[in-house]
Amino acid sequence: MIGSVVEKLNFEVAFYQQGNFKTTEVYHLPVKARLLKKNGSYGASLIFKALDDRNYLISDPHVQNERGKIFQFNDSVNYKEHHFAIIIHDPAGLQGIIGQSFQLTFLDPLAVTGSYVARLGVTWAEKGAGVLNLSITGPNPEKESDFMNGLISSYQEYDLEKKNQAAERTIQFIKRQLKDISDSLKIFENKLEQFKIYNASDKLDDEATRLFDKLKPLEEAKTELIISARYYDYLIQYLKGGSNLDLIILPSSIGVGDGVLSTLVNKMIDIQLELKLFIGKGRDDNPMVRAALNRLSEVKKDLVESVNTLRATDRIKSSFLETQISELEKQVDQLPLAQRQLVSIQRNYTLLENLYVFLMQKMSEAAISKASNVSDIVMVNPPMQGGSIYPNTSQNYFFGFSLGLLIPLIVFAVLEFFNRKIQSKEDIDKATTIPFIGGIGHYETKDNLAVNLKPKSAVAESFRAIRSNLNYFTENQLKKVFLVSSSISGEGKTFTTINLATVFAMSGRKTLIVGADMRKPKLFPDFNLENLRGLSGYLGGLNTFDEVIQHTSIENLDLIAGGPVPPNPSELLLTSKFEALIKEALKIYDYIIIDTPPLAIVTDAFVLSKYVDHTVFITRQNFTPKSFLGDIQDFYNSGKLKNISIVLNDIYKSGLGYGYGYGYGYGYGYGYGYGKRKKGDSYYS
Q1: What are residue 614's DSSP bridge partners?
Q2: CA quadruple 302, 307, 311, 314: dihedral sign
Q3: Quick one: which of 41, 204, 377, 591 has the most CB atoms within 10 Å?
Q4: For the residues of 311-347, what is the DSSP string, one character each?
């Protein structure tokens, strides 16, 4: 019903006007657009501009620099598969829109209908009172008011149509019966006229009149049985082939007055109307529909049984009538020939005439009923605007500002909660009892010589703080060996090794870096040195100690590179040659810093730990999984790694839980800002 209202009011086409902030519908324009052909191109928009009182311009907004096409008002238009007409309904108001551009939009009728179905509110004025309150919200009060008037008008038409259907179906049924009777009646009229022409007298004598008067009520009773029999035939045929069972002709309309039959027919109509409430996909799977169909099937069976019973009763009546008529016909046969013929013709004519008159009377009753029908739907109050809704600006700003702050905080909290990477010193302290020795800030430059290139930077200060804290562990003694390791690759072992060695060297102490990661030798490119001779060559007996020592550009800092990659790096570290290397190096150098492979990948660090005085374990903010701290704690508890401390590298987040002030003795502050991390920075490796 709402769909028919949308189509009748032409809501499938709408005009919009673009404003500074939003595009709004313009409902009451002096022109109306009507869609002449529905081709399914819904959602499309065109630009409409009235040029004068006769012509208008249509253009496509999606085509740049299109001039458009000029059409005349009230003419049908074919434009890019759109078939429509724009009609002037207010010539006086047309002057007010000449030169203005409007957006002509073709809407999907189903979508528009769905919108009104969703927005229409229906409530009882008082439950059971038979009065409904209808309400709808929308941006255009005049359009919504027209919709409400159209909906009520359509509902009234629908209600009246349903009432008239019963009378109309009765009239059509009677007309079909009258057509057959009328033809037979004409035949007997002709016979009666012929009899009058060829016989001197066309009057019945006293005896014939007496017999005819006795036959007449019997014939009238027979007429009623014929009418009932025809209705029974119609009813059975309708039950077999009818789908809209609520459109059946009521027995009382034809003069069949059996109360049981009328009750069953009305019950069938009620069930059919109940079934019409359930529409759409999955209708037959609805348990209420299945229950109603079962009841309908039972009513149909009862109707068939009732008709069969009524037919049997009518056959008994008909047999009784035929017996009486047969007795009278025997008496008629004793009359003279002319009288017998006249009685026969008169009997058939009277039978058909009575049947014809009876049906004409019933058709008149149905026509009067149809003409007198009025809709039960009455508009109590006309549609009226119940009020306008305006935005609460201050409240909206408050909520917008609050949500603008709250949502990022919630997102940040959720991300932090589900982040399983180390973020701060607090994360390390919660997971392990290993001493925390310091933090290293984010360093943007790609090379690893941060302390050498920027000795006054915050990063350089953080390495000096780590050097100072290491002295607490070594009691400020010289000839110490440090091992630098981590869980996985990319946490900054190489970066830490180079810069920690640099701060030792800058303090005037001779320092040696040993690249013990012989699988992936690094270190040497940062000092522009070579890797032809190194630790692998020394441990394999190919080079002497002096041959593997390389001097860097940094004073007091030398390097033993990893050397060419050997086939058995772990086995080489197990030989006594490495211990000899350390002993010989300690004769010359104050500090030795060994760079090892990650602990989670290979066990070289465990092999070398017995030669070192202290192990520096590197973690990286937002990179090292928190679960790895548990493994390191296990190594610490079991004694596999002794004299170990932890460093948090690449600190780029700030705020609660991320700061490391000088209260710890290893801060790297001075108000220095660190930028975002860049992929490809060498200290990632």
Answers
A1: 482
A2: positive
A3: 591
A4: HHHHHHHHHHHHHHHHHHHHHHTTS-HHHHHHHHHHH
Nearest to 536 by CA among 495, 582, 577: 577
pTM: 0.45
Q: Of how many residues is the chain composed?
A: 685
Residues 6+ apart with CB under 8 A from 615: 482, 483, 484, 485, 605, 609, 641, 642, 643, 644, 645
d(CA 536, CA 572) in angstroms, rounded, equals 8
Residue 487 near residue 644, CB atoms below 8 Å: no
Left (φ > 0), alpha (ψ -120 to 50) or beta: where does 594 sit? beta
Q: What is the pLDDT of residues 451-505, one digit of tens each?
A: 998 888 889 999 999 999 998 888 888 999 999 999 888 888 999 999 999 999 9
Q: How far is CA 62 from CA 81, 85, 107, 558, in A?
A: 15, 21, 17, 71
d(CA 364, CA 352): 18
Nearest to 270 by CA among 234, 295, 242, 304: 295
User: Which is nearest to 86 in space by CA: 150, 10, 18?
Assistant: 10
**DSSP β-bridge partners for residue 14:** 105
Q: What is the pLDDT of residues 115-172, one digit of tens each?
A: 999 999 998 888 777 888 999 988 888 889 999 999 999 888 888 877 777 677 777 7
Residues 6+ apart with CB under 8 A from 450: 443, 457, 459, 460, 463, 495, 499
